[in-house]
Write a structure and sequence with these properties.
The chain is α/β, with parallel strands linked by helices and 363 residues long. It is built from 8 helices and 33 strands.
Length: 363
């Protein structure tokens, strides 16, 4: 098989993560202090893919280009493909056709996280050479996903796909499509042959079904580990927890009358005074923590300040300030440069999802 190309879809408006995504692309919201999009690019590089096309939207494309650059720091060459309107995943495939130039490719949704990367998927695609290979996982609510019906089911082994249905009212199985696919160039003709769905989009499930209807071979691979679509606050926090669970601790910053317990990363330039950090947790470069407690599953971004407060199971983007809170802030996601501080009166517990450049006083 010729070298594979990579296609990462990084458009969309991120409505489920608003207000965070009013001012930032959803694919750039960090998990364990790394933008979600970067995990997908690294997964491509890990399997030897060097040519990666990133599908971008007009409103967030520039930010993504600035964050990724030419791709050299990931070991890939990044190209950018403008999808003028969010008209579906199959439409994005058609927009990318000039970049792909007939190559087989991996398609990865830029706001997805997949444990262990895509090496098993790529190996199965190379070994069995189907016309398409889709990644599936068992879910409790298949009616909210594209659902596959298989001829046989065996964990870890390819299974032939019989039928695909997008968000079925009566699902034939609990196997949902994960946001990772492998295609040959035949997917382009299939995408051209379908019509927009009821929501006005060219659905990738319909394009894959078109391959099946044309007698093409579509196989599946069932996820062994976890997979997360980071589209909602709860998903972001869960993804953050899952990534931090594999953290390898190190302390490159300064500890003054402070202690770290468990797997904790303190980046260079960070300073902790009279502070306890209980891992797994990560403290970004240039952060300043004093007289505070940071609990498990917390990612503190670079240049953040925490003083006289307790934070646990939360994500703080760069430049946040949390100070003088009598209650513990938990299960929260703060955008860039957010300030959360005590007012004259305060409750004992806090939970926030706050957009960039906000300033909150608790009264």
């Amino acid at each position: 098989m010729e070298p594979l190309k990579g296609l990462i879809l990084s458009g969309g408006k991120g409505t489920r993560l608003r207000p965070i995504t009013h001012t930032s692309a959803k694919q750039l919201v960090p998990v364990a202090n790394k933008p979600v999009l970067f995990y997908g690019i690294e997964a491509m590089a890990d399997v030897g893919i060097t040519e990666v096309g990133i599908v971008i939207a007009p409103d967030t494309g520039r930010e993504i280009e600035q964050a990724v650059g030419d791709g050299s720091r990931f070991g890939v060459r990044a190209s950018y493909i403008l999808q003028s309107e969010p008209l579906g995943l199959a439409h994005a495939v058609l927009a990318a056709e000039p970049f792909l130039q007939g190559s087989a490719f991996v398609m990865y949704l830029g706001d997805n996280l997949l444990q262990g990367g895509i090496s098993e998927l790529v190996a199965a695609f190379r070994e069995h050479a189907p016309d398409a290979l889709i990644l599936l996982t068992h879910v409790s609510d298949p009616e909210n996903y594209g659902v596959a019906e298989l001829a046989n089911v065996s964990v870890g082994e390819p299974s032939r796909v019989v039928r695909l249905v997008e968000k079925p009212k009566a699902p034939a199985s609990d196997l949902a499509l994960v946001g990772v696919y492998m295609f040959t160039a035949q997917i382009h003709d299939a995408a051209r042959a379908i019509s927009p769905s009821g929501r006005g989009e060219l659905e990738i499930t319909d394009a894959i079904q078109q391959l099946l209807d044309g007698g093409k071979r579509v196989e599946s691979h069932i996820v062994r580990g976890w997979w997360k679509d980071t589209g909602r606050l709860e998903d972001m926090l869960e993804a953050n927890r899952l990534i931090l669970d594999n953290l390898v601790g190190r302390v490159d910053g300064e500890l003054i009358d402070s202690r770290v317990d468990g797997r904790v990363v303190v980046e260079a330039g960070a300073s902790l005074e009279r502070t306890t950090v209980r891992g797994p947790a990560i403290i970004g470069a240039g952060a300043r923590l004093s007289d505070c407690y940071v609990g498990p599953y917390t990612a503190v971004g670079e240049r953040c300040t925490i003083a006289g407060a307790e934070v646990e199971h939360s994500i703080l983007l760069a430049g946040c300030t949390v100070s003088e809170l009598d209650g513990r802030m938990e299960s929260s996601l703060l955008g860039r440069n957010v300030t959360v501080r005590r007012g004259d009166r305060q409750p004992r517990a806090y939970r926030f999802m706050v957009g960039d450049n906000s300033d909150i006083s608790i009264l």
